[in-house]
Queue: 3 jobs
Job 1
Amino acid sequence: MLLDYDVGVLEAIKRVYGELYKAFLGSISRPGSRIYARVNVLRTGVGEVIDSLRARGIAVYQDEELEEAVYFPVEGPFNIEMHGYDKVIVADKYAAESVYLGSDLYIPGIVRCPNTIRRGDEVVIATEHGLPIAKGVAMINCRDSRSLRKGIAVEVVKSVYRAPKIVELPEYRAGFIYPQSLAAMYAVRALSPRPGDLVVDTCAAPGGKTGHIVEYSMGRALVIAFDHSKKRLEVMKGELERLKHSPFVELWRADSRYLHIDFSWIRADRVVVDPPCTSLGVRPKLYDVKRYSDILSASRYQIQFLRSASKILKVGGVMVYSTCTITIEENENVVEKVVEDDRCLKVVDTEIKRGSRGVSTPHSYAYTRFHPHIHDTTGYFIAKLTKVC
Ligand code: SAH
């Protein structure tokens, strides 16, 4: 594990976890004991998905509380040794984090592939910091790797952790499942969009929450989804098509800090604000670099999203704010600041029975937090607000 966090970041973590901060740091360097997917209940049943996976020998279970959630147990850790004579292919951070869980290494994820490695060779896959994460068989001659654009570079035989590769399952390709953390699914549960609602997702790509909103409302809500990133919107479009959700969602490219100006006509029943954050709760992390200034700039940005979102929310409407990070600066303090300045916005209880409550702020009793080292989930925060005037 290589977590390059400055003193300010470590102190922000300690403000939440005190002496347990080391347990927290340890937990984010590992995957949880389960990986989750959401069943697209608009297209299939949870029982059908479980039966078809089990028929192929895949261990899968329905979550104890969220009926649309299924999980796959994660096995490991297994020991991956590296010797001086081993042939080593280096993977980038993104690729390494899935290889760590047993996925094959694909050509775009290669950082270094020595020319001496040939198709059929046994190789070790390592991170850019030299940590061995898997063993496998090279499917390419490294000499050719620069001219190739896609395809499998290494078929993984043994990795530190092992879990089914969700995106390679036929159920995924058919649009029956969507990989999503359990904690993230609770955000849309807290939102509880109803049939007939106008629902706005302000930071939507790649569409995890948007898809859940469509399914939860059984395709009977009108969903308007915004995102600023052209590339991520392209991915989201593909995801909506795969899930067959496209007819239920209007997708717009916009800067959601200014929705109240650029889309001032919107009066939404439900709004989700799931903004960029420092992602400290995302796991597993093989390495990460964060500075306290990242936390402060994220929180300034998050306040802007919430302020704009509150202006397009109907009186009586519900807004959910969620992040996959754990700092008070980006969570409780953002919400507290926004409600302090807007007397028409009120914090209400998320009414989520799982996880813990918030930390050390006036409305801490109303928030939900998931702690990775305690709840065996992603580190996550959910707040629910309503507009009263
Ligand atoms: N809600 C998504 C994840 C969102 S991550 C899901 O559940 O799948 C945060 C998103 O905010 C990113 O897609 C990023 O492109 C987007 N974003 C960043 N700045 C933005 C801005 N100014 N306006 C709108 N979207 C923005």
Job 2
Amino acid sequence: MGFSTTAIHAGNEPDTATGAVSVPIYQTSTYAQEALGKHKGFEYARTQNPTRSALEKNIAALEGAKFGFAFASGMSATDTCLKLVKAGDHVILGNNTYGGTFRLFDRILRNYGIEFDLVDTTDVTKVEQAFRDNTKMVFVETPTNPVMSVTDIAAVSEIAHAHGAIVVCDNTFMSPYLQRPLELGADVVVHSTTKYLNGHSDSVGGFVALNDEKNAEWIGFVQNSVGAILSPFDSFLVLRGTKTLAVRMEKHNENGQAVANFLAEHPKVSKVFYPGLFSHPQHELAKRQQKGFGGMVSFETGSLEGAKKVLESVRLFTLAESLGGVESLISHPASMTHASVPFETRQELGITDGLVRISVGIEDIEDLIYDLDQAMN
Ligand code: P1T
């Protein structure tokens, strides 16, 4: 079955009770039991909810995974993946991730005995060298937020597996339409469904997809035990969102490339970070590994003043955190999404005070370029 057919039909069976074509929002905390121990497979809504189950089937199918679990946020999904390691284990963490992911490792997991090293995972030699006897996981984001570095998922997975470690890939920036990490060798895919999967900037959620039965059992156990579940209403919203994922991502690709091309030619821009540009250091890899280059573009304005001017002069773009919605957003990674990353690390990665990040939406491209042009000038 093709991607769009799967997106529209997987998990979306007509409701057994009423025939409703759209999966209903089962807004309930519990379920009546006919007799002690006799029920319809639903006992308590933290454990099971039909709306959430439908979404879990849907996104698992889109990622080509046997198992899927929906969470209250991307961060709770990421945190749950980290429950696959224990105190005393070591994790190789990509040196550029969403700031909140770095903060989770740096400020929280550290206190529970999880060791980690920040590694430039775009360089497989560096990944190989970072392994220790106790390395159990490699956690990568590709392309990264916000400098769009691309990691070779297949190569890193091969190295990790040779060392007996698993690979977790944050696929938020691509969505399963543009990149399928499990097919490339990764063991676990994590998403912030807040972004492209939902696509309409009206829900916060997360997702974990994987094939290994034992690890899936544990992720499900943690989901139920900790309870950071996605609500029925949010499950409905994301399920509605994925139906149009393919058409939205095609437009994000098209608009993203056009905005990157425009910025690359602009005299006031010294550098553009977009895997679809020939100048991108991993352009060839991105072409091979991804089905498109997506809608995220970052660019260097040279100074905080330069960035501020653009951020405050745009009219159509909204100054806001987040990404992946139909509407275009613009943000300042250094002070917003990546404020928890130490200053020196930010400088090394290129997350300077002059860096501006754009989530290119699916509006008419002429209007987006016009707005950026007037803001830049
Ligand atoms: O916000 P939440 O749904 O908890 O997702 C966290 C997260 C995880 N992974 C990536 C790659 C992300 O970009 C995010 C969230 N990012 C933003 C809010 C942002 O503006 O970059």
Job 3
Amino acid sequence: MQRHQLYIDTPIPPSRSCFLIGHPVGHSLSPLIHRAAYAALGLDWHYGLMDVLEPDLPAVLAGVDGQRIVGANVTIPYKERVFRLLDDCTETARAVGAVNTVFVRNGRRTGHNTDVEGFLSPLRERGATDPRPALIIGAGGAARAVAHALTGVLGWKDVTVAARNEATARALHGVGFTPWDERSSAAFGADLIINTTPIGMHPHEDASPLPADQPFRVEQTVYDLVYAPAETRLLQSASAAGASVIGGLPMLIGQAAAAFRIWTGQEMPLEAVRAALNASDTFGGAR
Ligand code: NAP
């Protein structure tokens, strides 16, 4: 018996599908984002959710044929485990050590990581890609994508990671390490501060990865990958002190837009996607 589930809620099978593979997948915003984009462009495509148990992972991935099932997103807990089940991967996926997007290239199922491009998209939009001292708070999966984006793609040299787990932080390529207890002073000295921990995420909106009395400078940019709420306590404090802030939504949309471009060959209609996210009750009025 197949244990994975494909929720297709369109009355007529669409011409093409993409889906999200993970366990669990129920809270993902990817269907909302991709379906809004398909609708805006009039594409007869569908984006489904696949809640997959590990024994079914090979069969599910084998279904990605680049034709009717064009591609897939991959989320927890399979971002690292899918490598061995794919024919190929991009340099970016290899550098990050995680796959979040699967597509078919020259007949080969290929793993890629669009978190890197998604993270960079709001920095590029602001023209904020010139090297600056940066502090990454946290050393998990998202931090790996952020570290590669800053050091591998942009070539920044002065990037430090503050984490409570020193070994995980030191495993990140091209970055320095700051002990967790010293993150406040390290943050004050950095021009770009990026929170990659879930601290401050719903339902813990009162929490922040930096102290409540953290001083900020107006020259600083504070980037929080948390997207629910859209403006975290960290961003509220930084903004009140005059620093520039970037929330997690632009990255969320940016990583989806990069996958969308690979699968459809078209640009994601960002205004339609933002409107769909605004109309949803996902952020509970926290925007
Ligand atoms: P992850 O792999 O579990 O990594 C989480 C990191 O945060 C780890 O280094 C962990 O440290 C640290 N951490 C967690 N709680 C902590 C605490 N109380 N004190 C100190 N450190 C703590 O998770 P992830 O996949 O990187 O995701 C992290 C966050 O980024 C989530 O909120 C996720 O929603 C968000 N995210 C957003 C986007 C976007 O598109 N906006 C994309 C990816 C991720 P330990 O190893 O010591 O536990």
